[in-house]
Amino acid sequence: MPSYLVTGSNRGLGLAMVKELLKDPNNFVIGTARDPAQCKPLEQLTTEYPSNRFATVALDLLKRRSVDEAAEGAAILLPNGLDYLVSNAAVCHQNITPFDQIDVDILEEELVVNTAAPLYLLQKFLSLIRRGGERKIMLVSSVLGSLDMAPMFVGCSDSYSLTKAGLNMLGRKWGELLKKEGITVVVVHPGWIDTDMGGHIEDWVAQNAPEIRKLSPAESAEGCLNMFRVAKLEAAVEYYAWDGTKLPW
């Protein structure tokens, strides 16, 4: 039974990924949230699926001890290791804030959640991945992290862009080393999604990039996961959009 762990699965893309994965009766899925017991969507899923199909683990990316405990809890649930790890959780607190007005204190929190925490997450979960069968890691990033495409998105979530550029570097460099172990790492742009985070840039998109289509969380989740499943070790490390097209770094 393939095993998946998805961070930030209390809402938005993460929750849509969990629901998409649970459609396959052969999958065992673990969803994370800061407090799963207080998350109604995850609690509902625990009533719909047996414990050998779906489980939750508490995970607060701002607290390293929480990541430690999440890894320990997941290890109990996954005696044979973890096949697929999806690092999805992220924050964007300064959506349309120009560089000269970015609050550096807020930026530091964004960097922790979006860049440093995924690094620590991989450090703590790597032993589980190494014991898994598929041994795949997805880093959910953004097209905003692309250096080549940055001039197209000036003024759109600039502080968030800094954090995702760092995440891209994490995936590209560490992924090259993990590839030698037989671990596949992919970096994914999930598209512009109809979520709370995506809603804050509607005016910018309308004025600067009206050709960009907004996706439902379900559509993005399906595309990202389809691409993740078929990703090959020999193609790692690649930077993909949700529909499988390759993006420039």
UniProtKB/TrEMBL annotation:
GO molecular function: oxidoreductase activity, acting on the CH-OH group of donors, NAD or NADP as acceptor
CDD domains: carb_red_sniffer_like_SDR_c
Pfam families, A to Z: adh_short
InterPro entries from the UniProt entry: NAD(P)-bd_dom_sf, SDR_enzymes, SDR_fam
Name listed for the protein in its UniProt record: NAD(P)-binding protein
